[in-house]
Specification:
mainly alpha
Length: 475
């Protein structure tokens, strides 16, 4: 099997583990927005804003560091064992520190303290399985990885439907059921799913001899801490907008968070790509033609991402009515094309970021993310009072676009990769332009949209057919 075929195969398997949870998440958006008013849904969004920051803080950048050193080290089991011990210890220590300040943190997030307790429990459980899940990915155990992820999904979705649909639907009488606080059952379902996932992952904890190697730890930490800072800065870009918008008005904050979820299909694509790409890129680093492989992958990433952007935009009103039926949420619909393109920029950035990961210069990822975070904060603070919630969408687009450009410019000097820049930019500009034309001028005009899509597909086929034949013909 060719290198590229193996990459695409792994990405498809990881994609299934990503697509199904996200698709179920789409169903849950409908369930949650049907039972919760917009101002209530904003509380759910803020809960997961806090979870995003704590997850990054607790993992210390060790997941990416693990892949880097596992791929090149002859002491692979020691790398895993040291990573596992480090994350277990950091989880306990960080958990105790956060618990000590939970009242203040809950107040900052504007959620009740008991909600924050659930949040902390979920983050603790999820962090404990980071190293074992990374070990499965590094060992190419995509099927087992996907299977356990599916178990987590079914528990979470099943409990959501039990608490929020089945009990009210069939008038089930339970003394503990609080009809005035339905949000809490979303968090209880998440906590239960995380706990069951930990149980299924326990056998992976004992796969290797537990040894802590100080030398390996120093390497992991040196590589990982800039990744953690970059992750926190990234969380500012991708999550803090919901907090800014919520401070305007909780109803608008809930609508913004719900419409943000309409970009989930692009998020699925990017996450699936990252799960397959990160270990693949590191494993290919020693190959002579690695830079050429990376360049080809980026081009087809942009092509597929551009197709996804067009399809989602063309059918956005149909998707909107299926996922968020309550019209009170639709006031934030205009953010969707901006968030879609912002996420595509983010995916390109993740692809470009391979240069600083392979050269062990993760400090650049930190720099780029901090720049993006500064852009995010400035645009939100300055322009939300002027243009409202749309400023948050503009901020996401500007931040990820800035990070993408900086990564390319610096990476071109530090680790040259022969990207087909003219074609990549051409496909990106064409897809983005068609997306805006469709959204603002031809909403629900499927004939015009079909013509636009056809033009894009034919152009790709004409320009790329020779290379596609070569890739598909390799064994």
């Amino acid at each position: 099997m060719s290198t590229l075929k193996r990459f695409f195969q792994d990405t498809i398997i990881y994609g299934l583990a990503t697509v199904l949870p996200r698709l179920m998440g789409i169903i849950l958006v409908r369930l949650h927005t049907d039972v919760l008013p917009a101002e209530g849904y904003s509380g759910v969004a803020l809960f997961y804003v806090g979870a995003a920051f704590l997850n990054i803080l607790f993992t210390l950048g060790m997941e990416t560091a693990f892949f880097r050193f596992f791929a090149k080290s002859e002491k692979k089991e020691r790398v895993y064992s040291t990573t596992f011990i480090t994350l277990t210890a950091s989880t306990i220590i960080c958990g105790l520190l956060v618990f000590a300040f939970r009242t203040d943190l809950a107040s900052f997030l504007d959620i009740p303290v008991n909600y924050f307790d659930y949040l902390l429990g979920i983050v603790l459980l999820d962090t404990l399985v980071v190293a074992p899940f990374a070990y499965l990915r590094a060992r190419g155990k995509a099927g087992l990885f996907a299977g356990i992820k599916m178990i987590n999904l079914f528990v979470f979705v099943g409990l959501n439907f039990f608490f929020l649909w089945a009990i009210p639907k069939f008038n089930l009488a339970y003394d503990w059921y609080d009809t005035k606080d339905l949000r809490v059952y979303i968090f209880i379902a998440n906590l239960a799913a995380s706990a069951i996932t930990l149980l299924f992952m326990l056998p992976q904890f004992f796969k290797v001899k537990v040894v802590f190697d100080k030398h390996i730890f120093k390497q992991l930490w040196k590589y990982g801490w800039p990744v953690m800072i970059a992750g926190l800065a990234f969380a500012v870009i991708s999550q803090l907008d919901k907090w800014f918008v919520d401070n305007i008005n909780k109803e608008i904050g809930g609508a913004y968070a719900a419409c943000y979820k309409l970009a989930v299909f692009m998020t699925i694509f990017i996450q699936a790509f990252r799960l397959g790409a990160e270990p693949f890129f590191f494993n290919q680093a020693k190959e002579k033609n690695a830079p050429t492989t990376y360049a080809i992958i980026l081009k087809y990433f942009v092509i597929v991402g551009g197709l996804g952007l067009l399809l989602i935009t063309f059918f956005i009103d149909f998707i909107k009515n299926q996922l968020v039926n309550d019209s009170s949420y639709h006031i934030a619909m205009e953010i969707v094309p901006y968030i879609l393109i912002a996420n595509l920029f983010l995916g390109i950035y993740h692809n470009l970021a391979i240069w600083y990961k392979l050269t062990d210069q993760t400090k650049y990822g930190m720099y780029f993310s901090i720049i993006g975070a500064v852009v995010t904060i400035i645009i939100n603070v300055v322009f939300i009072p002027i243009v409202g919630f749309m400023a948050a969408a503009y901020a996401a687009l500007a931040a990820f676009g800035t990070m993408m450009v900086f990564s390319y410019v610096v990476g071109h000097k530090k680790y040259p990769i022969p990207y087909e820049l003219s074609r990549i930019c051409g496909y990106l500009i064409m897809a983005a332009s068609m997306s805006f034309i469709s959204f603002y001028y031809f909403r629900e005009n499927y004939w015009i949209n079909a013509i636009l899509l056809g033009i894009f597909v034919v152009l790709i086929f004409v320009l790329e057919r020779k290379q596609l034949k070569q890739i598909l013909s390799k064994k």
